[in-house]
Amino acid sequence: MTHEKKVLHDPEKNTERVRQLTDEYHEKVKSEDIDNFIFTDGTGSAPDMTLPYGRSPEGKRVTGTRPVSQGRRIPTIGALSSEGSEVCMVSEGTPDGAVFLSYVSDFLCPVLKEGQVVITDNAGDHKVEGVKELIESEGAKLIYLPPYSPGLSPPEMCRSEVEQFLKKAGAGTEEALNNAVSEALNMITENDCKAKSESWRDFFEKTPFPSEDFMNDRVENRI
Known about the structure:
Layout: H1 16-29, E1 37-45, E2 74-81, E3 84-90, H2 97-108, E4 117-120, H3 131-137, E5 141-144, H4 155-169, H5 174-187, H6 190-206, H7 212-221
Parallel strand pairs: 1-4, 4-5
Antiparallel strand pairs: 1-2, 2-3
Helix pairs in contact: 4-5
């Protein structure tokens, strides 16, 4: 026996309601062409982001700097399709329903094609009035991810890479953070996005109903 860190999750995740919503999600997506999928996701960053560890000679302490104040968080919303990264929006303030509606209206809808399927988080601010209507007005569909399922969203893998880049950058100020966010987003190339989408193509074609353990591994290990 070894002493291991617990993997914790909300007990609601194992309820019949969540299982039913997950099954309904699979029924919706398995009839669609994965080339038509376009996933949206968001993340936030702050000037005080930094790596908690560093390298040093044995016996020497690793030192660094970090602002005492966290500073304002910068929300970023983006979209990913089988053709690569689509559109991103960086804003200020809390990423509420008004911000997401603005992203859909001003950034996402102009690039949507008829027949595409927009898949997004089931957070309340993604369900505000107008989101569904805007997407459907472009001839596209809207499907919400089931609860407790970040592993079902390919941008989740890109988000970890962006956050790691920002921690390494150690911006310290809002101006430096804005520049670092731009660099981080440019770091995700079209080939990176296509590779992630191709892994999802293989996954959906071979496994119509993903297991909970497999989906957890996709998020925790970024496979």
